[in-house]
Amino acid sequence: MIETKSKEQLQKELLSKVELDREDFYNWCEQIIDINCKNCRKNHQECKLYDLLDKYEVPDSSFEKETVAMLMMK
C-alpha cells in the first residue's frame, strides 16, 4: 500500500531544512559572526551561536575556511 502524505506534512518537511552551497553558508556565517561576536566577552560555554556554529563545523577563521574548501576540492 502506498502512503500519501498530506499537504501539511509535505510543507513541514520542505520548511524543516535549508540547502545552501558551502561557500554561501560560510559567507552568511561570517556576517552573523561580525554582527554578534565583535567585542563579545562571553565564554563560549554561554553562547548559543558558538554551539550552533560548532554543530555545523563552521571554521573559526578565514584560514580554516580556505583549508576546508581546498580539502573539499580534492
Structure description:
- With 74 residues, the chain is mainly alpha-helical.
- It has four helices and no strands.
- It has helices at residues 7-15, 22-37, 48-55, 62-73.
- The longest helix is centred in the middle third of the chain and has 16 residues, at 22-37.
- The protein is elongated.
- The mean pLDDT is 79.
Distance N terminus to C terminus?
44 Å
Low-confidence stretches: none
Shape: elongated
Q: Helical content, roughly?
A: 55-70%
**What integer is the average pLDDT?**
79
Number of helices in the DSSP assignment? 4
Main pleated sheet: none
- Structural class of the secondary elements? mainly alpha
> How many β strands by DSSP?
0
Oligomer: single chain
Tag the structure with descriptive keywords.
74 residues; mainly alpha; 4 helices
Task: Set out the fold topology.
Elements: H1 7-15, H2 22-37, H3 48-55, H4 62-73
Quick gist of this model?
It is built from four helices and no strands. By secondary structure, the chain is mainly alpha-helical.
